[in-house]
Amino acid sequence: MQLANAQEFLRQGPPFSKSRVNREADKWRDGLDYDPEPIEEFLAFNALHAEALLGGARHTISSLLINVADNADQSVRPNTRAYSLSARVKTKSVLLEKLRRMGGTPLLNVHDVAGIRFDCDLSLSQQAAIAESFKADLEAFGAKRVDIKDFRDAPHSGYRAIHLHIRSTAGRSELQIRTALQSKWANLYEEAADLYGREIRYLHEGADMPPGAGQMVQALQKASMLVAKVEGLAGGENHWYREKPCKLSEEAYRVLDGLHAELKQQRVPAKR
């Protein structure tokens, strides 16, 4: 199958049998013998899906009235006016974990197998406005439904962002929009999850704290509240703050850098 542009792709149906994919995925989730071919076909199609969304997102970004520049190293810092845009498909191991966590949810109902991420040096108001721009363009491209999920005031285990849940003839997908500070925090939390256990990503769902993770998770949760406070001040009516937004954002980023250094140190094996 050749890669189509976003408008063509979102309007076309998948080439596989949906019932067969769901049936084999249920067996896979439950630890039974299953045929991996339909799941592999589903993931391959989702890779094309993510690439099509990436093309559509580039179109939206090019039409924005804010002055942003692509950042090749995928790192976005405050006050740089830079952004990074990336696509991904969930790995089989992560997808299997999610299916088991979601109980009886069919594979085709998982909304974020295919996803793209837009990290940008933005204010909170710009972040919300850009989410609306992406939504409008996706609907124009052929999405049947685009739901905006705001995780900034009700974060998941400290995670703050705006997500777009997209439904189209091609299937379900997700677009994540994060500010520079939200992005840095989320990447740190992913590193902590790799180190301590992925359970820390689901504490808001009642998951148990992994052994040894409590102190770092507490520090990251505190940092998440700092990010919210700094970004909230920047977007409010605090005229005194407007004279020094760059400084406070950069100080918050340095706090996150400090936690990053701690995580790196804990990854180094202790010397005998």
TrEMBL record:
Residues 87-200 form the RelA/SpoT domain. Keywords: Kinase, Transferase. CDD domains: NT_Rel-Spo_like. The keyword Disulfide bond does not apply. It holds the Pfam family RelA_SpoT. The keyword Transferase applies. GO terms for molecular function: kinase activity. This is GTP pyrophosphokinase. InterPro entries: NT_sf, RelA_SpoT. It comes from Corynebacterium lizhenjunii. One of its GO terms (biological process) is guanosine tetraphosphate metabolic process.
